[in-house]
């Protein structure tokens, strides 16, 4: 028996990285998943890799576009008959110092992370409220806890996701809907491994466990928050950081 047997989950930004790892773990634990991603070809390839139409379907979704988010959530109910879990994972980076960051770079990151999460959270909550059940997992970041140089846009957005999650958790608790957040730290991925060596080494020196995390380790925490193992948890923020910035 899987922890998500019979459940239907929607995951944004699920064509690669942490989002795909979450989708993979959810399928392994019995869920059927809707892979949402702005790259429709990558989303389709991810759904096939997850096991094809019996367990996964792909939908192109720009999380900043409310109509796209409506279509993404509708795919869960139309294709699989339910919406039990939403993971708001889609994100981008546009790193630059405040001196060099453009207004467009700031707005892009706020739109995707903060408004994108709000779009998914608000629309999924309406569906889950009607059925009096559901779990929403929002992906924040350690950058939203401590702030990172060169990431005033990203740090602001990720901190905002924490406040948004807590406010939504208070609104939705008596409707049977739980809202929690995850703050990953340095997670090994194509993006982080492209860092200059001195930047990587500096970050590693801040981690008590002396290693980067794996996407599968974030996925395990997402599974916990999506499942009944966390049935008495809402409004929480779980750090997956190896102890960095405790």
TrEMBL record:
Enzyme class: oxidoreductase
EC number: 1.1.1.100
Transmembrane segments: none
A single GO molecular function term of this UniProt record: 3-oxoacyl-[acyl-carrier-protein] reductase (NADPH) activity
Keywords associated with the record: Oxidoreductase
UniProt key word Zinc: no
Keyword Oxidoreductase among record annotations: yes
UniProt xrefs under InterPro entries: KR_dom, NAD(P)-bd_dom_sf, Sc_DH/Rdtase_CS, SDR_fam
Top-level lineage group: Bacteria
Domain Ketoreductase: 7-190
Family according to the record: Belongs to the short-chain dehydrogenases/reductases (SDR) family.
Protein name, per record: 3-oxoacyl-ACP reductase FabG
């Amino acid at each position: 028996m899987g922890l998500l047997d019979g459940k239907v989950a929607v995951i944004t930004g699920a064509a690669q990285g942490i989002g795909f790892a979450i989708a993979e773990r959810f399928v392994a634990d019995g869920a059927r998943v809707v892979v949402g991603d702005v790259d429709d070809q990558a989303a389709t390839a991810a759904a096939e890799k997850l096991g094809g139409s019996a367990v996964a379907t792909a939908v192109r979704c720009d999380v900043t576009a409310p109509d796209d988010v409506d279509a993404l959530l509708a795919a869960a109910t139309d294709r699989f008959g339910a919406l039990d879990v939403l993971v708001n994972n889609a994100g981008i980076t546009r790193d630059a110092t405040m001196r060099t960051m453009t207004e467009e770079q700031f707005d892009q990151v706020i739109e995707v992370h903060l408004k994108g999460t709000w779009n998914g959270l608000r629309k999924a909550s309406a569906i889950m409220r009607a059925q009096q059940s559901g779990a929403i997992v929002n992906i924040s970041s350690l950058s939203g806890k401590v702030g990172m140089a060169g990431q005033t846009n990203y740090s602001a957005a990720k901190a905002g996701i924490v406040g948004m999650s807590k406010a939504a958790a208070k609104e939705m608790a008596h409707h049977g809907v739980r809202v929690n957040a995850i703050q990953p730290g340095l997670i090994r991925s194509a993006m982080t491994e492209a860092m200059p060596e001195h930047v990587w080494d500096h970050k590693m020196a801040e981690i008590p466990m002396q290693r980067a995390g794996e996407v599968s380790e974030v996925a395990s925490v997402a599974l916990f928050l999506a499942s009944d193992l966390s049935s008495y948890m809402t409004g929480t923020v779980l750090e997956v950081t190896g102890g960095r910035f405790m």
